[in-house]
Specification:
The protein is an alpha+beta fold and about 400 residues long. About 40% of the residues lie in helices and about 20% in strands. The chain has helices at about 15-45, 50-55, 60-65, 75-95, 215, 220-230, 240-275, 285-290, 310-325, 325-340, 385-400; strands spanning about 1-10, 115, 125, 135-140, 145-150, 155-165, 170-175, 190-195, 200, 205-210, 280, 295, 305, 340-345, 370-375, 380. Helix 6 (about 220-230) runs antiparallel to helix 7 (about 240-275).
Length: about 400
């Protein structure tokens, strides 16, 4: 199996300059390749330029511009071109399926924060023998950079990436390792129902509160964004030091909220995996749930729109995004795989409207957001607990129906 590791780097001032230049030059390569594809399509009878053609030009590009392109790893530049090729492949896939295409865009230097090396030893070298939690990673054109390795890397390192987050630099490793020993069997099964009032409710009657990290930091983030909005829109080379500090403050607050969400998701998923051998959850289509409502045209007044609940839906969308369901489910599946646990996603329809006692399904069974009262048999419980119980039952049925 493949596992990722992320460690904080501590580059010197000179190495920071070199790392910044590496990102900028790879960004320039990405934008140049994108421009070539656009020009070929527009001016040369709609000709498509593929990755193979652009990769074959790298040798000439490096010879023509040795100071900017020739000093970096050839393999990492190939990965950058593959990154663009994947963006175009996704674009054509969306066009074919009738979705909103989203043509690949040019990247600014502040929006290009990652360079990947496809193989350890090819343009980079990871030192796997740390001393007092400090080790080094070597990058072509940069040198040996100190790394704070807070945990051991298990397995053989496959790829190495450089990632910039604000003023911090990280190295991201992917390592191939043997499948770990599964955790001891518990014989316990649980269903979980994700929500907003509570982050999740389980089929045993337990609840995990929703920390609402975004709402907690909303006041500070709003003040920082208002300060940033006061600066006029000028070219990057004319921006003041105060403007740069305002940008960094907004980014720092967003980063704090993101780390808090990840920490909460990791701890919640780990607790579930340690306690239960089988976990069932709703197969949520989060992207569809957070779509804006369709505008309602007024037939009597062209150009005028009727109320469509957009303001209330925007607030609901913010709450869903703040909860971070997608991040949590991704982490839950990864931890379950490592621990030898089984996780199954089930259809979420009517899970909170179906009575677990008599099976009667009706919207009247849920008179309020957190109350369930069956109109057929009179069973009463918390609506989220009822949903979790039905999710567990559906998950067990699906597991039994799966071929051996």
């Amino acid at each position: 199996m493949i596992r990722a590791y992320k460690f904080l780097m501590r580059p010197t001032v000179g190495q920071t300059v070199a790392l910044t230049a590496m990102l900028a030059d790879h960004c320039s390569l990405y934008n140049g390749a994108l421009q070539e594809r656009r020009d070929a399509w527009r001016h040369v009878s709609k000709t498509s330029v593929k990755y193979g053609t652009q990769s074959a030009q790298l040798k000439e590009i490096r010879a023509f511009d040795p100071e900017r392109q020739g000093r970096w790893s050839f393999s990492s530049q190939q990965v950058t071109l593959r990154r663009l090729d994947k963006a175009f492949a996704a674009f054509f896939r969306r066009v074919k399926s009738g979705e909103t295409p989203g043509y690949p865009r040019f990247r600014g230097v502040n929006w290009f924060d990652t360079v990947e090396f496809p193989k350890d030893g090819d343009g980079c070298r990871w030192n796997s023998t740390p001393h007092d939690l400090v080790t080094h990673v070597r990058f072509q054109g940069v040198g040996h950079v100190k790394v704070h390795q807070h945990r051991a890397v298990i397995g053989r390192v496959k790829t190495v990436s450089v990632k910039r987050e604000g003023r911090k630099w990280f190295v991201v490793l992917t390592a191939e390792q043997e499948r770990p020993e599964p955790l001891p069997a518990t014989g316990s099964s649980v269903g979980i129902d994700l929500g907003i009032a509570n982050f999740l409710a389980d089929s045993n009657g337990g609840f995990v509160p929703n920390p609402r990290h975004g709402r907690t930091n909303a006041a500070k983030l709003e003040a920082a964004q208002q300060t940033l909005s006061k600066f006029p829109r000028v070219r990057r080379d004319k921006r003041s030091a105060n403007h740069r500090r305002a940008v960094e403050k907004v980014a720092k607050l967003h980063g704090k909220v993101r780390r808090q969400r990840f920490d909460h998701a990791h701890k919640t998923a780990l607790a579930l995996v340690r306690e239960h051998g089988f976990i069932a959850h709703e197969d949520l289509k989060i992207r569809n749930m957070t779509k804006a409502p369709t505008p309602k045209h007024n037939p009597d007044h062209p150009g005028v729109f009727l109320p469509n609940g957009a303001a209330a839906k925007a607030g609901l969308n913010r709450s869903i995004s703040d909860a971070g369901w997608g991040v949590f489910l991704t982490i839950l599946h990864a931890k379950a795989e490592s621990a030898g646990r089984e996780v199954i996603a089930v259809d979420p329809r009517n899970t909170s409207r179906r009575c677990p006692e008599c099976g009667h399904t009706a919207k009247e069974n849920r008179p309020t957001q957190d109350t369930f009262h069956c109109v057929a048999c009179g069973h009463s419980a918390h609506a989220d607990t009822v949903g979790a119980v039905n999710v567990l039952r559906a998950g067990l049925v699906r597991r039994e129906a799966q071929p051996a």
